[in-house]
Design brief:
By secondary structure, the protein is an alpha/beta fold. Helix content is about 40%, strand content about 25%. The protein is built from ten helices and 14 strands. It has a seven-stranded mixed sheet with strand order 2-1-3-12-4-14-13, sandwiched between helices. Strands 8-7-9-6-10 form a five-stranded mixed sheet. The N terminus is likely disordered.
Length: about 280
């Protein structure tokens, strides 16, 4: 009987391992999420261990192999993680400033290059963020395909920068002529003084994309799920990455990301083969 009790006690986790996608560099992501992580620890009584991989797929793999319990994914990396890593969306951050739970992909260029329309970008150099980024790859690629543009042939050179900030700086420094990034991350770069808004122009804007979800392993124990969801719902007036100050995390579910699946289907992407 005693052994059984010990076994039950052993199943109660004392720490929560949280994965974060690298929309900025790893250290910036850690700093930008620290206050939310501190509140999560205080509200749940669990020790929080944050984890940032070098790329989006690194976080997916960490969840697939059981190395993390909860992860903040982008919309497309979530769709991949739901299929490959048993991830389940349960909450989305709500920015206090906008009150919105969606955002847009934008294509930016430097004003002094005179590249103000998509046709003017033909034959120019271009940066996507990561193959698994919704706003930094999937939605702009699908959107341009809808306009009859094959991005693999349309641009003279295409790179994957690794993060939205890196793509913004690549345009700012003339490393590429244009780039696809999240509008809110561009706004964040402006507010942080990394770039000046007046130096850029927006060449293209996507349809609304459902906000990046907070997810957990489906097989995480029910008690921990309840604690985590309740703690995040109470996050108020704290900064969260590129979202700025939050007005809490709102409940969401897997169906909210069907529009992302449909966009992937339009590109004929085989989600099962993307690892």
């Amino acid at each position: 009987m005693k052994a059984t009790t010990t076994g039950v006690m052993a199943q109660q986790p004392t720490e929560l391992r949280v994965g974060l996608i690298p929309s900025e560099d790893a250290q910036a992501m850690m700093r930008a999420s620290q206050q939310v992580m501190d509140q999560l620890a205080a509200k749940t009584g669990l020790k929080i261990k944050p984890f940032v991989a070098n790329d989006y797929n690194g976080v997916i793999e960490a969840m697939r192999s059981g190395k993390i319990d909860v992860a903040y994914f982008g919309p497309f990396s979530y769709v991949l993680a739901s299929q490959l890593a048993n991830a389940e969306a349960f909450a989305i951050p709500v920015a206090k400033k906008s009150g919105k739970s969606s955002y847009n992909s934008i294509i930016i260029s430097k004003k002094d290059k005179g590249l103000g329309t998509v046709p003017q970008l033909q034959g120019k150099t271009f940066a996507f963020v990561d193959p698994s980024s919704a706003s930094g790859h999937l939605f702009p690629k699908a959107g341009l395909k809808g306009e009859g543009i094959d991005t693999d042939k349309y641009f003279s050179r295409v790179i994957f920068s690794g993060s939205h900030d890196a793509s913004i700086m690549a345009v700012a420094n003339g490393k590429v002529d244009a780039a696809a990034v999240a509008d809110r991350i561009f706004d964040s770069a402006v507010s942080k003084g990394l770039v000046k808004r007046e130096d850029f122009q927006i060449v293209w804007r996507s349809q609304p994309i459902p906000e990046s979800p907070m997810t957990w392993r489906k097989n995480l124990d029910a008690g921990t799920k309840q604690k985590v969801a309740a703690a995040l719902a109470e996050v108020k007036d704290l900064p969260w990455g590129d979202q700025g100050v939050l007005d809490g995390f709102a409940a969401t579910d897997d169906k909210a990301y069907d529009v992302v699946r449909q966009t992937a289907k339009a590109l004929k992407l085989d989600l099962g083969s993307m690892k």
